[in-house]
């Protein structure tokens, strides 16, 4: 098994002597900034004027322009949306870095796909929490943490690994366990996971099941419960104890159906397509397409999103959830980033 590190394995002095700039104050940014400060690190926040700026100031941070925050700091954690990082980096970060500084990321995309090419005199590391920012914050407040991956792309000071580990400790991840990775592995597995399984695979499975039942004349309400609502129970059981734990809780009839029908849904052909998706992630074809979609102002993204929001499962779901006050209301926009 790969080596998982905990608080006892981490030296914090090297980062305690430095000033950290957190660039962005969204899902990850607010959690990193608050947790690091409470762990005893010195933090400033770099932002443009706007909602996040107001929020960070309310939380008691010194908020500077991105350029100024970078100038004043030794370690710069870039927590902007991935598709905006390159532009902000070129405009406000690059020229303000000094030899011996470190830049850091919570996802390897822009470094791995050469969108950001760091100068050769700075450290470059990754601390990628395996959970959304609001969980990183909440678990920290509860005295626990979300596990994280860490990795080093460039080690100029000889201290990059220590910095990454201390940073992971500061956000609470060392309480839960930190595991070494590379920018390549983190980026490729993250993209594959969200496309094939967590987001893409799951939404397509749910919709196909719902459509099959409603096209056969069953009530959309019943189809919604069966194909979407009950998903949470199953996923909670998987999370708590893996496949066996989930199968222990469901009926033997459900378990028999799982055994005989599951492999007919996800079969060798599906796996073949997963391999194609993985190849496109590895070759950079997916990244290239997403970058040009953004450069063109997201025509397909916007069109598909509008169409998806009109799917009948969304309409019936909205009505049903209003009748179920125990189901939490959708998260506020700034809390919405649950997916990575
Ligand atoms: P969000 O979209 O939640 O937050 C982005 C932040 O960047 C906001 O505070 C926004 O402020 C600010 N911002 C946007 N544009 C600019 C700009 N031009 N100049 C200055 N500030 C700007 O991002 P996430 O936290 O989701 O993602 C950050 C990083 O973390 C990404 O690399 C992502 O892949 C990674 N990550 C995210 C996870 C998640 O669960 N969300 C999990 C693990 C990693 P404003 O209010 O002004 O728009
Ligand atoms: Mg059932
Ligand atoms: Mg992701």
From TrEMBL:
<dbReference type="GO" id="GO:0000287">
    <property type="term" value="F:magnesium ion binding"/>
</dbReference>
<keyword id="KW-0100">Branched-chain amino acid biosynthesis</keyword>
<feature type="active site">
    <location>
        <position position="107"/>
    </location>
</feature>
<feature type="domain" description="KARI C-terminal knotted">
    <location>
        <begin position="182"/>
        <end position="327"/>
    </location>
</feature>
<dbReference type="GO" id="GO:0009097">
    <property type="term" value="P:isoleucine biosynthetic process"/>
</dbReference>
<feature type="binding site">
    <location>
        <position position="190"/>
    </location>
    <ligand>
        <name>Mg(2+) 2</name>
    </ligand>
</feature>
<dbReference type="Pfam" id="PF01450">
    <property type="entry name" value="KARI_C"/>
</dbReference>
<protein>
    <recommendedName>
        <fullName>Ketol-acid reductoisomerase (NADP(+))</fullName>
        <ecNumber>1.1.1.86</ecNumber>
    </recommendedName>
</protein>
<feature type="binding site">
    <location>
        <begin position="25"/>
        <end position="28"/>
    </location>
    <ligand>
        <name>NADP(+)</name>
    </ligand>
</feature>
<keyword id="KW-0560">Oxidoreductase</keyword>
<dbReference type="GO" id="GO:0050661">
    <property type="term" value="F:NADP binding"/>
</dbReference>
<feature type="binding site">
    <location>
        <position position="48"/>
    </location>
    <ligand>
        <name>NADP(+)</name>
    </ligand>
</feature>
<dbReference type="InterPro" id="IPR014359">
    <property type="entry name" value="KARI_prok"/>
</dbReference>
<feature type="binding site">
    <location>
        <position position="52"/>
    </location>
    <ligand>
        <name>NADP(+)</name>
    </ligand>
</feature>
<feature type="binding site">
    <location>
        <position position="133"/>
    </location>
    <ligand>
        <name>NADP(+)</name>
    </ligand>
</feature>
<feature type="domain" description="KARI N-terminal Rossmann">
    <location>
        <begin position="2"/>
        <end position="181"/>
    </location>
</feature>
<feature type="binding site">
    <location>
        <position position="251"/>
    </location>
    <ligand>
        <name>substrate</name>
    </ligand>
</feature>
<dbReference type="InterPro" id="IPR000506">
    <property type="entry name" value="KARI_C"/>
</dbReference>
<dbReference type="InterPro" id="IPR008927">
    <property type="entry name" value="6-PGluconate_DH-like_C_sf"/>
</dbReference>
<comment type="pathway">
    <text>Amino-acid biosynthesis; L-isoleucine biosynthesis; L-isoleucine from 2-oxobutanoate: step 2/4.</text>
</comment>
<feature type="binding site">
    <location>
        <position position="194"/>
    </location>
    <ligand>
        <name>Mg(2+) 1</name>
    </ligand>
</feature>
<dbReference type="GO" id="GO:0004455">
    <property type="term" value="F:ketol-acid reductoisomerase activity"/>
</dbReference>
<dbReference type="GO" id="GO:0005829">
    <property type="term" value="C:cytosol"/>
</dbReference>
<feature type="binding site">
    <location>
        <position position="226"/>
    </location>
    <ligand>
        <name>Mg(2+) 2</name>
    </ligand>
</feature>
<keyword id="KW-0479">Metal-binding</keyword>
<dbReference type="InterPro" id="IPR013116">
    <property type="entry name" value="KARI_N"/>
</dbReference>
<dbReference type="InterPro" id="IPR013023">
    <property type="entry name" value="KARI"/>
</dbReference>
<dbReference type="GO" id="GO:0009099">
    <property type="term" value="P:L-valine biosynthetic process"/>
</dbReference>
<dbReference type="InterPro" id="IPR036291">
    <property type="entry name" value="NAD(P)-bd_dom_sf"/>
</dbReference>
<comment type="function">
    <text>Involved in the biosynthesis of branched-chain amino acids (BCAA). Catalyzes an alkyl-migration followed by a ketol-acid reduction of (S)-2-acetolactate (S2AL) to yield (R)-2,3-dihydroxy-isovalerate. In the isomerase reaction, S2AL is rearranged via a Mg-dependent methyl migration to produce 3-hydroxy-3-methyl-2-ketobutyrate (HMKB). In the reductase reaction, this 2-ketoacid undergoes a metal-dependent reduction by NADPH to yield (R)-2,3-dihydroxy-isovalerate.</text>
</comment>
<comment type="pathway">
    <text>Amino-acid biosynthesis; L-valine biosynthesis; L-valine from pyruvate: step 2/4.</text>
</comment>
<keyword id="KW-0521">NADP</keyword>
<feature type="binding site">
    <location>
        <position position="230"/>
    </location>
    <ligand>
        <name>Mg(2+) 2</name>
    </ligand>
</feature>
<dbReference type="Pfam" id="PF07991">
    <property type="entry name" value="KARI_N"/>
</dbReference>
<comment type="similarity">
    <text>Belongs to the ketol-acid reductoisomerase family.</text>
</comment>
<keyword id="KW-0028">Amino-acid biosynthesis</keyword>
<feature type="binding site">
    <location>
        <position position="190"/>
    </location>
    <ligand>
        <name>Mg(2+) 1</name>
    </ligand>
</feature>
<keyword id="KW-0460">Magnesium</keyword>
